[in-house]
Amino acid sequence: MGLKLAISGKGGVGKSTLAGMFAQLAAQEGWRVLAVDADPAASLAATLGMPEEERRKIVPLAERRALIEERTGAKVRQYGQIFKLNPDVADIAEKESAFFRGIHLLVLGAIERGGSGCACPENVVLRELVADVILNKKDCVILDMEAGLEHLGRATARGVDLLLVVAEPSNRAVEVCESIRRLAGEAGIGRIAVVGNKVAGPADEEFLRKACEGASWSACPAYAGYLGGLPFDEVIQRADRENRSVFDVAPPELLERFRQLWEQVKAKAAGQSGTADGRG
Ligand SMILES: Nc1ncnc2c1ncn2[C@@H]1O[C@H](COP(=O)(O)OP(=O)(O)OP(=O)(O)O)[C@@H](O)[C@H]1O
Ligand SMILES: [Mg+2]
Questions:
Q1: For residue 203, what are the CA distances in angstroms to 4, 150, 181, 208?
Q2: What backbone torsions phi and psi does residue 53 show, to the nearest 5 degrees?
Q3: Which of 68, 86, 187, 214 is the 20 to 30 Å CA partner of 61?
Q4: % helix / strand / coil in the chain, to the nearest 5?
Q5: Is the dihedral of CA 253, 276, 30, 166 positive or negative?
């Protein structure tokens, strides 16, 4: 039922670029796509190629006070209130998402952190919403997340078909992958794969492959392998600067790389094993 993909990794590694590409490839295949921007520094709309005027109109859900108050029965930013911990959110994805290029886009926005397990009304609505789209929708759901796994409660984590962790060839990025893997294990995510990005040559590829095939990775029962690396490409950088989607400007070879990766991601999400590098 559906395809539930979460994408995480260190800041700037290319999570949103990948999420935007997958959303467009999935939509092209006829999936009903719900793209969820769960990164406080929202940029998924941009990677979908949404023009700036249109992007500016999107009010992140965390800032929709009236909606949050209506659903939880509580006033935002007042402490010590009793409110609904299971607000009705089933219609939110449909009603409150932006619709662009056949993709429904939900921007969650930032929540002030009141410690872990913060039960402020905003957080309760967002958590319930993410749980609802992961557990109940038949769509292709693509979650663009920051390096933490905020928003994913235990039950929700189990509904994620694949957590794709993006790594660039740097020690820091690889370390972040490892901490995400630990968090994912604790959260109960069933399947994790790593994809490399900004790979500038064979040495980069070798570095990533070694880092993602070490003992700590093979000891992880959820680990589904390293899917290979996407090249560093100026076209991708330029697309960002020109406010365009990579999907629109990528030459056929580059688009093909993304397509191949998307096929690997779908196969992994469906629980099919491949060769270690997934290209078999
Ligand atoms: N393969 C690539 N080659 C060249 N540039 C890339 C590549 N992938 C991503 N970039 C560039 O790197 C920058 C960061 O990409 P992106 O916003 O997708 O990363 P992110 O992980 O979502 O970042 P953040 O953590 O800030 O949300 C962008 O300018 C993007 O164009
Ligand atoms: Mg991003």
A1: 33, 33, 24, 9
A2: -55, -40
A3: 187
A4: 45, 20, 40
A5: negative
**Domain boundaries 3-269, corresponding CATH code:** 3.40.50.300
Q: Is the CB of 10 under 6 A from ligand 1?
A: no
Cα(4) to centroid(ligand 2), Å? 18
Quote the CA–CA distance of 200 and 58 in Å, as a whole number: 35
Q: What is the atom index within ligand 1 of the atom nearest the CA of 199?
A: 1
Q: Among the bound ligands, name the one nearest to the CA of residue 12.
A: 1
3-state secondary structure of 278: coil
Sign of the CA dihedral running 111, 112, 115, 118: negative
The one-letter amino acid at 169: P
> What's the pTM?
0.94
36 to each of 23, 59, 191, 251, 252, how far by Cα in Å? Answer: 10, 13, 19, 27, 27
Domain-wise residue ranges, the chain: 3-269
Assess whether the C-beta atom of 97 lies below 6 angstroms from ligand 1: no
pLDDT per residue as tens digits for the range 107-154: 999 876 655 456 788 888 999 999 999 999 999 999 999 888 878 888
> Could you give the residue ranges of the DSSP H alpha helices within the chain?
15-28, 44-47, 52-56, 65-72, 92-96, 121-136, 154-159, 171-187, 202-211, 215-218, 234-241, 246-249, 252-269
Atom of ligand 1 nearest to the CA of 231: 1
Q: pLDDT (tens digit, 9 = 90+) per residue, 27-49?
A: 999 999 999 999 988 899 999 99
Which burial class, exposed, middle or buried, applies to 160 when counting CB atoms under 10 A from its CB (0-12, 13-18, 19+)?
buried
How many Å lie between the centroid of ligand 2 and the Cα of residue 9? 9
